[in-house]
């Protein structure tokens, strides 16, 4: 795993933790936004890391 993908993954996991904290505090709207943003960032990081590994197979 490249360093940039690792940093992006850590940032997404921090967003997930922030989401959990805001959910526990009762601010459900911001928790939902943080969790959705974290999920999207994780998906983009996954696609980006698998894209760079596969390459063209011609």
TrEMBL record:
<protein>
    <submittedName>
        <fullName>Uncharacterized protein</fullName>
    </submittedName>
</protein>
<keyword id="KW-0472">Membrane</keyword>
<keyword id="KW-1133">Transmembrane helix</keyword>
<keyword id="KW-0812">Transmembrane</keyword>
<feature type="transmembrane region" description="Helical">
    <location>
        <begin position="30"/>
        <end position="48"/>
    </location>
</feature>
<feature type="transmembrane region" description="Helical">
    <location>
        <begin position="5"/>
        <end position="24"/>
    </location>
</feature>
